[in-house]
Amino acid sequence: MNIKSPIGRLRLLAILEGISYLLFGITMPMKYMLGIPEPNYVVGMAHGWLFILYLLFCFQNIMIHKWSFKISVLALGASLVPFGTFVADAKIFKPESSS
């Protein structure tokens, strides 16, 4: 993964954003079942920033690579579904980076 290219940075962000989303599966039970809200604040803030950066990098790559409307919607929508960014990385971003 070449993080010096726009698609490489998007791939890295997709993985980090996906991990931060999945961490809510740990921090939400900690907050609501165990009464420990602090980890949720940290994960929430990190996830918020990574989500925004992911969307910005998606728009950057949409413009650079002239992705179709369908691919653009799938790439942007992937951030709304658990594991979505991992699938987008494998199906959309990785093939693009090898060409």
From TrEMBL:
- Compartments reported by the entry: Cell membrane
Membrane topology reported for the UniProt record: Multi-pass membrane protein
Report the residue ranges that make up the DUF3817 domain in this protein. 8-92
Family annotation (Pfam families): DUF3817 (PF12823)
Q: Where is the signal peptide?
A: none
* Keyword Ribosomal protein listed: no
Its Gene Ontology cellular component terms are: plasma membrane
Keywords assigned: Cell membrane, Membrane, Transmembrane, Transmembrane helix
Major site of localization recorded for this protein: membrane
Taxonomically, which superkingdom?
Bacteria
Coiled coil segments of this chain: none
Q: Which InterPro entries match?
A: DUF3817_TM
What stretches pass through the bilayer?
Answer: 12-34, 40-59, 71-93
Q: List the protein's name.
A: Integral membrane protein
Record the organism. Answer: Reichenbachiella agariperforans
